[in-house]
Amino acid sequence: MTTEEALIKLAESTGEAIGQVLEVVSQSTVERSKVAVVHADDGPLRSVPVPAVIASVSYVDGVTGGNIFVMTRLGVQRLAAAMMGMDAMAVDEAEELSELDLSAAGEAMNQMMAAAAGATANVLQEEIEISPPETRFFATPGEAGDAYELTPHMTSVGFTLLGEPCRLLQLVPNAFVVRMTHALDELAAEEAGGHLDREGREGISGAQIRAIPVRVWAELGRTHMPVGRAVSLGSGAVVDLDRAPDDPVDLYVNGRRFATGRLLLVEDEWAVRIESVLPAGSVPDTEMPGGTN
After folding, report:
1. Is residue 168 a contact partner of residue 18, using CB atoms and an 8 Å limit?
2. What is the pTM of this model?
3. Domain range spanning residue 237?
C-alpha cells in the first residue's frame, strides 16, 4: 500500500467518525467531501474561512501531529442553536460568540476530537494518546496559519453543516505513516489468508474471528436531560441514574446487550460477575454508544 493510499484510508475512517458525531449533535444531515492529500507548502490553514473557531488535539506519544477541526463563526452559532433545540437555520451571524455558543461548540468539538482519535487508533491497530482538546478563535487566515506546527503529511476533509462549511485537517507524522501502512498491509495479508467456504468463496477462519477485538462495557444506569443542562455540567456535578446501587448492571458487546451481572470490588478494582447470559436476538441494540468500560 502506498503512502497516499494509507493517508486516504486514515482520513476516510476519521472523516466518517466525525460526520456521525456532527449529525448526532446537530440533528441534521451532514455532507462530506472526498479526502484530499495536501502539503505544507499549500498553506492549508491559511485558506480556512474566517472568522473561525478551531479545535485541535495533539499526539503525545513522542510524535508531532494531530487533528484540527475548523468551523465558521456562523457555523458555531447555528450548531449551538441546534443543540439547544432551536431553529438553527433562522440564526443570523453575530459579531461576538456568546458563552453559550462557545460552551456548546466546545462540547461538540470534544466529542469530535475523541471520535477522530478513536478512528486513528482503529486504523493503526493500537492505542494512541492525545492531549486535551484546545479550542481557539481566529479572526484572520494568517493567525490560523501560524498557530500550528505542520507535518510532512496532511489530509483534508470538508463538511457542510447547517449550511456552513467546516473542515477536518489531519497532521500525520512520518512515524504514523509507517505504522499505518504496516497495519493495513497486515490486515490485507490476514484477509488474503482466509479459507474458502463450501461454494469456493474466500471466507474468514475461526481463529481470525476469535481474534477480532470487540468493545465490552457495563452500564450502571441511564438518564435523560436537555442538551443545555448537559453542556453546563461542571466538575463535581451529580447526575441521578435510573437504578439503585444494588440493581443488576447490563453488559454490552459492540452495542448489543448480552448479559446481566453484579458489580464486585476485586483487589481495589471494579469487576462484574455475570449472573445471566441473554439469548441471541432477545434484546435490541443499545441506543447509547458508550458506557463504563
Report:
1. yes
2. 0.61
3. 214-293
Look at residues 141, 53, 135 and name the one whose alpha carbon lies nearest to residue 97: 53
53 and 155, same domain (yes or no): yes
Instruction: For residue 11, give the C-alpha cell.
Output: 482520513
Single out the residue of 133, 128, 130 nearest to residue 56, CA to CA.
Answer: 133
Q: Which residue reads 469487576 in cell numbers?
A: 271
Question: Residue 245 burial by CB count (10 A; 0-12/13-18/19+): exposed, middle or buried?
Answer: exposed
Task: Give whole-number Cα distances, 37 to 54, 55, 87, 176, in Å.
Answer: 20, 20, 35, 15
Angle at CA of residue 11, ends 29 and 215, nearest 5°: 80
Which three-class secondary structure state does DSSP give residue 100? helix
- The Cα–Cα gap between 152 and 42 comes to 12
pLDDT tens digits for range 75-87: 999 998 998 888 9
- The rounded distance, in Å, linking the Cα atoms of 152 and 26 is 33
Of the chain, the end-to-end C-alpha distance in Å amounts to 34
- How many domains is the chain built from? 2
